[in-house]
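Wait, mind explaining this?

_____
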Amino acid sequence: FPPTSSWDAAYERELQTFQDIGDAGEIWFGEESMVRIIRWLEKQKVPLDSSVLDIGTGNGVLLIELAKSGYMNLTGIDYSPSAIQLSEKVREKEGMSNIKLKVEDFLAPSAELSGFEICIDKGTFDAISLNPDNTMGKRKQYVRSLCSVLKPGGFFLITSCNWTKEELLNEFREGKQLNRTICQLTELPTPKFCFGGRIGNSVTALVFQRK
């Protein structure tokens, strides 16, 4: 990750903006990314009482939308205290007292952060991957952390603008231990673009299931 202070500064600005005008700030990957996740959960008939972890929750807006869709067992974590402070303000405004929010470093999760049936990442793995300090080690630790918090049979939904489908498959299947732990389930549809006669995706969204 970049230094916590830089994220804190960004979220402190968003917190001040929220207090001034009630704007919760940026939604990473846009509102369609949240709709895509919720539609998949509904299509799979994921029970509304399933335990859901939002990794790097930021302003917590995804959790708000999940709560509005009927999901009841929601937890958001972020390693920036200012992000959690902002998400608490957003939660308070929306009256969603059932959403749990915690300051947590996902690369060193606390013991009580375990047993989740759904884990969601919108950009956090991207942010870790952009850190020039021991990037490979941090990516491997991310996968280890994921395996420790996600229940066997649980689903991991990741949205990325840095990684292709094939690259994400390699990241989450790498190593003897993980090869049998996480497997790809499906690819979620994302907007396509055409450049130089070739069609591509600006965003990749995959669902893995832990075995």
Notes: Confidence is low (pLDDT under 50) at residues 195-200. Helices lie at 4-21, 31-43, 61-68, 81-94, 124-129, 135-149, 165-173, 176-179.
